C-alpha cells in the first residue's frame, strides 16, 4: 500500500523492514493455535515484536506504547503482510479501551504487560444467551465493599486458555435499564473460581474457551471507568475491533491476491475468462478497500459507527477474494496446501466476530443512515 510516506514514516518503514530481514525467519511458523507448541511460538513472536518496539504504536508512551499516529499501525500491518510475517497481536481494541477509560492506577498496573506482550488478555463479552443481543448478558458482578463478586459464564473467548487478564463486561446495576446496568472489569484469570474449558474447532484451532465464574472476587480498583459505563466502553472497543487498520486485513489480502495473480500469469493455475474477470474485480475491490482504510485512519471515529462500514466492506471483499482463489485452485484448494483453505475458513468467521454482518447492517441503517428501527 502506498501511503506516500513523509520522512518520519519512511524512516520507520525502513527500520521495520531491516528488523524483519534480521528476525522474521525464526518466527515464520508463529501462525496458529492448534497446539501448546504453536501457541507458544505465536506468543514468542508477539513478545519479539513488542521488545523491538512494534506493539502499541498508537498507544500512549507513558504506559508502554509509542505515542505515534494511527497511520503507523497500518504501516506495520502493511509491512508484516508484505514480508509474509505472522499477524501482530490482536490487542489494539483492548488496549484502547483500557487506555481511554481506566484510571491512572489501573493503566499503570496493566497496560505495560499488555503492550509488552508479557501478559495475554482476552475479551469476555459473549455469553451462551447473549451474542448479537449483547446487552442482555447476565454474568453478574455484585458490588461488595471494596470488591465485586462475579458469577456467570462467557463463551467464544479467544485466547482465554492462556490469558492472564480478561476484560469482562458484566452486570453490576441490577435495577438499571439493561444497557445502563453494565460495567467493565479487569479480571485476573488466575483468581479462585475461574474455570476455563477449551473449545476445539473443526479446523483444529484451540483458540476458544468457555469461561465460568463462580464467586470470583475482583478488586474494585480493577473497574474500568465508572460503574454503569460498560456499554459505552464496549462500543468504543468494538469500534476499534471492527476497523480493518487494527486487524491488518488489507495487507494480508494484498498478498493473497498477488499469489493468485502470479499463479494465473505463470500458467500454474488455468483460469477461463469469467474467472479472470472475477480476479480483476477482486483486485479493484481491494484497491477501493486500501483507500477506504487510509481514509478511516485519517478520520478516526472512536466509539462511532464507522467501524461497522469498515467491517462490512472488508468482510465482503475478503470473502469474495477467497472464493475466487478457491475456484481458481479447484479441488486442490481443499486437498492441497492447507494454508489457503485455512484463510478461506477464517474469512467465514469474519462475518461473525465483533458483531455479525446482520448486526453491522442494522447499525449502519440506524446510526449512519438515520433510518427508523424496523
Ligand atoms: C473468530 C471469532 C472470535 C470471537 N472472539 C470472541 C471473544 O474473544 N470474546 C467474545 O466475547 N466473543 C467472541 N466471539 C463471539 C462473537 O462475538 C459472537 O459469536 C457474535 O457476536 C454473534 O453472537 P452469537 O454467536 O451468539 O450468534 P447469535 O447472536 O445467536 O446470532 C445467530 C444469527 O442470528 C442473527 N441475528 C441475531 N440477532 C439478529 C437481529 N436482531 N437481526 C438480524 N439478525 C440477527 C445473527 O446475525 C446470526 O446470523 C468470537 C466469534 C468468532 C467467530
Automatic annotation (TrEMBL):
The keyword Flavoprotein applies. Coiled coil: none annotated. Residues 228-369 form the Acyl-CoA dehydrogenase/oxidase C-terminal domain. InterPro entries: Acyl-CoA_Oxase/DH_mid-dom, Acyl-CoA_Oxase/DH_mid-dom_sf, AcylCo_DH-like_C, AcylCo_DH/oxidase_C, AcylCoA_DH/ox_N, AcylCoA_DH/ox_N_sf, AcylCoA_DH/oxidase_NM_dom_sf, Mycobact_Acyl-CoA_DH. It comes from the Bacteria. Residues 122-216 form the Acyl-CoA oxidase/dehydrogenase middle domain. Residues 8-115 form the Acyl-CoA dehydrogenase/oxidase N-terminal domain. Keywords: FAD, Flavoprotein, Oxidoreductase. Its cofactor is FAD. Pfam families: Acyl-CoA_dh_1, Acyl-CoA_dh_M, Acyl-CoA_dh_N. Belongs to the acyl-CoA dehydrogenase family. PANTHER family: ACYL-COA DEHYDROGENASE, ACYL-COA DEHYDROGENASE FADE29. This is Acyl-CoA dehydrogenase family protein. The lineage of its organism: Bacteria, Bacillati, Actinomycetota, Actinomycetes, Streptosporangiales.
